[in-house]
Amino acid sequence: MFFTTFVLITFLSFMQNRKLLNVELGRVSAEEYKELPESGIVLVLDNVRSAHNVGSAFRTADSFKADKVWLCGICAVPPSAEIHKSALGAEDSVAWEHVKDTMEAVTRLKEQGYTIVSAEQTVGSVMLDRFVPEKGRKYAVVFGNEVSGVRQDVVDASDFCLEIPQFGTKHSLNVSVSVGVILWHFRLHL
What we know:
Elements: H1 2-16, H2 30-35, E1 41-46, H3 51-63, E2 68-72, H4 81-87, H5 90-93, E3 95-99, H6 102-111, E4 115-119, E5 126-127, E6 139-143, H7 152-157, E7 160-163, H8 175-189
Helix pairs in contact: 3-4, 3-8
């Protein structure tokens, strides 16, 4: 009896912690993704130099249903084997556009009614944990170059800057990590 109970409990524990199979995840196709309601969130990548970071941004944008990724300046653009390696095909589901200069994207997005938010450490930045996005408002979140961050003229043109609170010695996150943290925060509140 003890052995049978032990086996049953072990089996039930295993079933509770069993990893889901891909077919159980409820994934939508790239075509179905494009038909989902808009989230009101777009990403603007300001001269992100690593194609792997661009790919990661696509994958995260897909995961949290961002509407579009703006690739600015030196950003790699699809089709690219390096982007595809980290995007896992998300570059085919998320709309994207390349512009030569980040300010062109910012100007166009402002004209379309987006609130421009730079993910950057500034004198007047708003800490992410204190920010609650307004429902129904459209946001364009700008993420900067791996070395120099968001360009100062883009920061100046932003409605405000968001800063991710950090507690270690570096006070620096990889841009792809920042995309994930900030998009998750937006999706929690919208």
